[in-house]
């Protein structure tokens, strides 16, 4: 989708049921790429995502000297890992706007030993890296900032990092912890990671730990005092010996975050939507958004082919209070659902999304106000008051989730135009083509 704008076709009154596929999970693809690079031997990732983010990750591995083969048509990636070693002790990596590549590759390169130059897009240069970089410095890694402290671009230098104890602030991103967990096995002594910050629930870290287990490495957790400090323990090379990450064939789940936009259509349009190969036992935290839709009156059936969402014929549904800390990527989708509710909706627990591709709380409120609704920003969330939605243009802030979620408004309100729909290439390249097929 190379257009500068996209005018959504209204489907109000349409009762066409949907049966579709979405791309592979970005979160699982990029985690699996790192683990495959650290495994001993060739891993095959089936159902992998091909998008801007995953291509930056793939190119980063190739630029570092790893043998990488990609078949986009078959959605298969092959990576030959070297058992926790890197092909060379120096290199340059450009991560684009991919937060996962930025955090995960940084940790891997810091622990590998050598000298590595890392850079990113202007958007990623504005996103936080300092908590991870400070933690790495505490382990003996040298960080030379090329411009602003705590941000890309920078140079990593290290030699003989053994491991030990480290503290990490995960208040603004759990990716920092996931990066340390996956790369921690490279260190002879492993890692004991003490968590700081306000995040209580960590669904993406749980995903990381479960994927590590599938690759053959188990991490442990301790709570030093009831309700107190939590510690994650990563086994190191001395403990693992030859039993580190296992190369093998791994299937990537469909992207549940992407599927949720279509499941929301079930409620907004009163139709049935099935996304193939999505199941309720998914590793992805956004499965909890399906429970919210169920709370609002939808019915869920996990069929052998995939989860089907029945929107029913409800003429209306109430607003709710919902803590979305576990599935904050769906905050924008929930805001759109809230715009058509009968009563106000309060979304809590998502203060950290101010530090993602955009300040997502401010962006949501700004765009809903632009369309005529009342919306209040709060420290860790927002309140949306339903009302009459006016036609208008939606700015997307180069944020794929703003573009995909706000397009849903146009399915019920004529005259909604999405600016810069191409930003969806970050994770879901054919989103608007698929929307075009649905609305044709």
The CATH topology of the largest domain is what?
A: UDP-n-acetylglucosamine1-carboxyvinyl-transferase, Chain
CATH superfamily of the largest domain: Enolpyruvate transferase domain
CATH class category label of the largest domain: Alpha Beta
Net shape: globular
Second rung of CATH, namely the architecture of the largest domain: Alpha-beta prism
Strand segment count: 23
Low-confidence stretches: none
Largest sheet: 4 strands, mixed
Number of domains: 2
User: Helical element count?
Assistant: 14
- State which percent range the strand residues make up: 15-25%
The side-by-side strand order for the widest beta sheet comes to 2-15-17-16
Radius of gyration: 22 Å
Measured between the Cα atoms of the first and last residue, the distance is 16 Å
Helix content: 25-40%
Mean pLDDT: 94
Structure description:
This protein has 440 residues and is α/β, with parallel strands linked by helices. It has 2 domains: 5-22 and 255-439, UDP-n-acetylglucosamine1-carboxyvinyl-transferase, Chain (Alpha-beta prism); 26-234, Enolpyruvate transferase domain (UDP-n-acetylglucosamine1-carboxyvinyl-transferase, Chain). The chain is 31% helix and 25% strand. It contains 14 helices and 23 strands. The chain has helices spanning 26-38, 52-63, 99-112, 122-125, 130-138, 175-183, 203-214, 237-240, 256-269, 287-295, 331-339, 360-370, 400-407, 431-439, and strands at residues 5-7, 18-20, 40-46, 67-71, 76-82, 90-94, 114-119, 142-145, 154-158, 164-169, 191-196, 220-223, 230-234, 249-251, 272-276, 299-303, 306-310, 321-323, 345-348, 374-378, 381-385, 392-394, 416-419. The protein has a 4-stranded mixed sheet, with helices on one face. Helix 1 packs across helix 7 (203-214) and helix 6 runs parallel beside helix 7 (203-214). The longest helix has 14 residues, at 99-112. The protein starts with a strand and ends with a helix. The model has no long low-confidence stretch (mean pLDDT 94).
């Amino acid at each position: 989708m190379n257009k500068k704008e996209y005018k959504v076709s209204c489907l109000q009154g349409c009762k066409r049921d949907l049966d579709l596929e979405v791309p592979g999970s970005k979160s699982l693809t990029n985690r699996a790429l790192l683990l495959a690079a650290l495994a001993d031997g060739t891993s095959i990732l089936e159902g992998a995502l091909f998008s801007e983010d995953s291509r930056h990750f793939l190119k980063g591995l190739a630029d570092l000297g790893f043998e990488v083969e990609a078949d986009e048509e078959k959605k298969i990636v092959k990576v030959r890992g070297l058992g926790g070693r890197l092909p060379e002790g120096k290199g340059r990596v450009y991560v684009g706007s991919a937060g996962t590549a930025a955090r995960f590759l940084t940790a891997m390169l810091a622990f590998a030993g050598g000298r590595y130059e890392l850079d990113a897009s202007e958007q990623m240069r504005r996103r936080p890296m300092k908590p991870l970089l400070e933690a790495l410095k505490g382990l003996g890694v040298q960080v030379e900032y090329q411009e602003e402290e705590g941000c890309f671009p920078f140079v990593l230098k290290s030699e003989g990092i053994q491991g030990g104890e480290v503290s990490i602030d995960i208040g603004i991103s759990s990716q920092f912890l996931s990066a340390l967990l996956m790369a921690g096995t490279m260190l002879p002594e492993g890692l004991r990671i003490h968590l700081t910050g306000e995040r209580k629930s960590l669904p993406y870290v749980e995903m990381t730990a479960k994927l590590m287990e599938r690759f053959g490495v188990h991490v442990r957790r301790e709570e030093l005092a009831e309700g107190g400090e939590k510690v994650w323990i990563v086994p190191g090379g001395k403990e693992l010996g030859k039993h580190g990450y296992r190369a093998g064939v791994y299937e990537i789940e469909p992207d549940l975050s992407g599927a949720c936009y279509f499941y929301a259509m079930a409620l907004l349009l009163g139709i049935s939507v099935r996304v193939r190969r999505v199941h309720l036992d998914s590793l992805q935290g956004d499965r909890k958004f399906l429970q919210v839709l169920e709370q609002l009156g939808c019915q869920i059936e996990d069929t052998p082919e995939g989860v089907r969402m029945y929107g029913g014929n409800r003429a209306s549904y109430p607003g709710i209070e919902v803590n979305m800390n576990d599935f904050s990527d769906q905050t924008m989708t929930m805001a759109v659902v809230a715009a058509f509710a009968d009563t106000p909706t309060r979304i809590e627990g998502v203060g950290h999304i101010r530090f993602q591709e955009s300040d997502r709380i401010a962006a949501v409120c700004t765009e809903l106000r632009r369309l005529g609704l009342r919306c209040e920003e709060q420290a860790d969330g927002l309140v949306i008051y339903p009302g009459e939605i006016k036609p208008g243009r939606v700015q997307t802030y180069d944020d794929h989730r703003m573009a995909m979620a706000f397009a849903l408004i146009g399915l019920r309100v004529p005259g909604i135009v999405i600016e810069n729909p191409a930003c969806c290439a970050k994770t879901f390249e054919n989103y608007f083509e698929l929307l075009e097929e649905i609305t044709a």
